[in-house]
Specification:
Length: 266
Amino acid sequence: MFATQYEFMPSMLQSDAYNCSAVMPMGPAWAEQHGEKHVEFGVYSLVFGIITEILYIPCMIGLGRDLRSSCIKIMFWLAILDMFAIIANCIGFGGAVFCSNPVATTAVGILGYSKLAITNFNFQVIFNSANESMFFSPFIPGHTTDEYVNWPHAIHNMVVASCSCTLYLLLCIVLVIKNKSISANNRGKRLVSNTPVFVQAMAICCVNLVAALIYVYMNFLPAPPGVIVAGQVAWQLSHGSPPFIYFALNKSIRHFALKSVGLGSL
C-alpha cells in the first residue's frame, strides 16, 4: 500500500492543488517564511517515540513466539502498524512545511496513514510545522482548506471512534454482569482481577476517541493551537500507549515479554 501511494506521488505533486512553484520555488525558503520550529514539542516527540519503539521490541518478541491464538496474531500485527505510525507522528521536522520538501513530508504522511486502502484515492495527509500536526491541506497561499476535504477519512474516524468505544463499553458491561453472577466470597477477587481490564479499556478508548474527533474537527474547522497539539499527542498515544499499558496492567503479556528477553524474574 505504501508503494502504491509512493508510485502515484509525482503525479499528485504536479497537480495544481500542490503547485508550490506558482508562489515561489520549492526549498528551504518556504520553511523560513511559513514554517515554525517548536523545540520543546519536537524533543518530547522524539523521546516519546524512541522509548515507545524500544518498549515495543520485547512485546513483539513475546507476541511473535506464540502466534497460535487469533488474539495474539491481531495484537502482533497491530503492534507492527503502531510502530510504523510512531515513526511518522514522532519524527522531528525542524520547521518544515510541505513546499520546503514535498517528497519527504508527503512520504511521512503516507507512512503514518497508509493503513487505509481508501487513502490511495484521496488527499494525502501532510505535516505542517507551524501547526505542529498533520493536515490534508499543504497550506499553499492562494488555496483554501476546503479544496482538500477528505470525507472518507472523516467517516472512518467517526465510525472507528464510536464503534471502539461501544465495544469497550460492552466488554465492561459483560464483566460487570459476570461479576454479579458469582458468589460474594469470590466477587472481591474477581473485581480486583478485572480492574486492569477496565483501566485498559478506558485508556485505549479515550486516546482513540480524542485523536479521531480532533483530527476530523481541525481539518474542517479552525482549531486553537492547544486543541491541535492535543490531537497530535492523542494520536501519538493511540499508537504508543499499548506497550506502556501491557507492561503496567497486563500481567501475562508483561511476564511473557520479559521472559522472552531473559528478564522473567522482574
